[in-house]
């Protein structure tokens, strides 16, 4: 069972999300929070696999709650759940460490799929949205070129480049003719070595270091030093 914490200041929204997720059969809502402070407290008590986090909440908002949660539980899988879909909200949430972004008027099946994918360590932004997000990060001052990351194996560099193109784990596995578990292992190792929290930050590093070109295609690139300023 995937353990989920729902943080939203509207009781009706929390109830609807709980009913939707628990009807999926492989999920359990282990806690509900009406503000960010309660979300942090309940996450420490229930240790959820995935946290659905509203951004606009009283007292402690979602962005601050994400920062607090990741300070004590760096591996938390936090998916933003909000009525807003502006680029500024997406960038702020992902920069804080969220792994994905859902708008409340998305189809119910998308929320269920997002929880499953977040739990499995998957990316929750498609290639077109990833392109907008990465370009937003780069436009905000992270476009300066950086050396190819040192300390990564050739396969880890190859996988990092494919993450930068927006491919899912399954698509990367198919591209490299390896298993999905192998892809997850390489991605996890690369992110640990580079001190990255999520795949969005990994994608930004891939672009800054020239592993991916402006058309979002992987590039074979000579080795260099470590990135000067990984995203985040």
Structural class: alpha/beta
Q: Tell me about the biggest sheet?
A: 5 strands, parallel
User: Strand order within the widest sheet?
Assistant: 2-1-3-4-5
Q: Look at the structure and give the mean pLDDT.
A: 83
* Rg for CA atoms: 17 Å
Coarse morphology: globular
Distance between the termini: 31 Å
How many individual β-strands?
5
Q: Give the % helix.
A: 40-55%
Strand share of the residues?
Answer: 5-15%
Runs in which pLDDT lies below 50 for 5 or more consecutive residues are: 222-232
Summarize the SSE layout with pairings:
Layout: E1 2-7, H1 11-22, E2 27-33, H2 36-46, E3 50-53, H3 62-72, E4 77-82, H4 87-96, E5 100-103, H5 108-119, H6 127-142, H7 154-164, H8 169-176, H9 180-194, H10 199-208
Parallel strand pairs: 1-2, 1-3, 3-4, 4-5
Helix pairs in contact: 2-3, 6-10, 7-9, 7-10, 8-9
What does the model show?
The protein has 232 residues and is an alpha/beta fold. Strand 3, helix 3 (62-72) and strand 4 (77-82) form a beta-alpha-beta unit. The two termini are 31 Å apart. It has helices spanning 11-22, 36-46, 62-72, 87-96, 108-119, 127-142, 154-164, 169-176, 180-194, 199-208; strands at 2-7, 27-33, 50-53, 77-82, 100-103. The radius of gyration is 17 Å and the shape is globular. A 5-stranded parallel β-sheet has the order 2-1-3-4-5, sandwiched between helices. It has 10 helices and 5 strands; from the N terminus they run βαβαβαβαβαααααα.
Which characteristics define this entry?
232 residues, alpha/beta, five-stranded parallel beta sheet, 10 helices, disordered C terminus
